[in-house]
Amino acid sequence: PIPVIIDCDTGVDDALALLLAVRHPGLDLRAVTCVAGNTDVDGVVRNTLTVLEQAGAPEIPVGRGAERPLLEPARAAQHVHGADGMGDLGLPAPKRTASELDAVALLRREILASPRPVTLIPTAPLTNIALLLRTHPEVTRNIERIVFMGGAVAIGNATPVAEFNVWHDPEAAAILLTAGVPITMYGLDVFVQVVVEARDVHRLRASSDPGTRLAGELLAHRPAAVGEEPEAEEAGGLGDAGAVCAVADPQGITSRLLPVEVSLAPGPGRGQTIVDRRPRPGESEIHEGRREQALVDVALEVDANRYVKLYLDTVERP
Ligand code: BDR
Ligand code: CA
């Protein structure tokens, strides 16, 4: 199996990603690290431990990471993920506890100790990963690649042009892109396309297995807007779990190596990932020459049915 570490902000769809990684026979989840994002970092740690426990996962070390982005304040997304950051499902408090090592120390230890190079899967703001790369740059020698959920080619959610994870900590994302290891960007454009149908969600919710049932409850979670009743059960997006699918089954995405830059300037473009899809250089390059830019393997298309099937087949496995 591929040794992987997930860095997350659990998070309804981060929880879906964890469930997949725990149950997929082709993946060896060696650690999970937590960062402020969808909710505060202590909430993320609690939610992550709860998911691992409910999934019946072996004792996987969980590291508490950054409380806030490098420059920006922490800005949680409770309107999407609920007051507890994971859909307010009323789950019991976890019996497991976090590692004594913080996220950066745990990442360093697990990456360097792995007999095979590790694939990192960040599904959250990239603060922990940026701190790791700046504190212990030697880890890159045992990183196979980084497949991150974040950014977008053409759409935004936090702002009209910026995706939440990159918008939350743009400087950290810029550090990631220049890490000097192969990077795949599983961005918002493909993220939104992978959706589980209502009848499948219903079946998962009726399962006798707590982990499978949790996947169903998470997929069914739909935050009500202020003053609105929650909607009846319907289809649910795999979200961050799609990035785990992209590691387990890379053939499910169509990607291209393209220059990507994070917009760091203040103003309406901050946090946008600017992906250069032009076939030939434009005027700025002709007059000023090409600037150094990170080449990133960008997911442009996804076979949504293939990833939904992969998810259901794996998570419903007894
Ligand atoms: C990302 O933001 C979070 O709300 C989700 O967990 C996902 O990682 C999508 O923009
Ligand atoms: Ca996330």
From TrEMBL:
Residues 268-287 are annotated as: Disordered. Residues 275-287 have a biased composition (Basic and acidic residues). InterPro entries: Inosine/uridine_hydrolase_dom, IUNH, Ribo_hydro-like. Keywords: Glycosidase, Hydrolase. GO terms for biological process: purine nucleoside catabolic process. Residues 4-308 form the Inosine/uridine-preferring nucleoside hydrolase domain. This is Nucleoside hydrolase. It comes from Streptomyces roseochromogenus subsp. oscitans DS 12.976.
